[in-house]
Amino acid sequence: MYLAFLTTGISLLLAVPAAYSLSKLRALLMSWNEFLYAVILLHSLRNYTVPLVIASYISEWGVKWGEMAAAGLISSLPMLVFTGYVQRYMVLGFMRR
Question: Which pTM does this prediction carry?
Fold first, then answer.
């Protein structure tokens, strides 16, 4: 009984930093992609966010697949760079507990 409690306690202690880091990363990604609020609140093309600009490549006459793919790739680069930079601190946080 004690061994089961001990392994569960250790597992939970190891899972807490991972859950915290992943929740913060998810919150950052979700705020990066606030598509619905931007569609409702922004009316000027000058103020469009990146997802709205990407969605503007879809029109009733067709889809500009090349431009849409390029814009999607370029818009994902800041998040990839940020994740790569923060990854070493996440790993250190996992190992520290």
Answer: 0.56
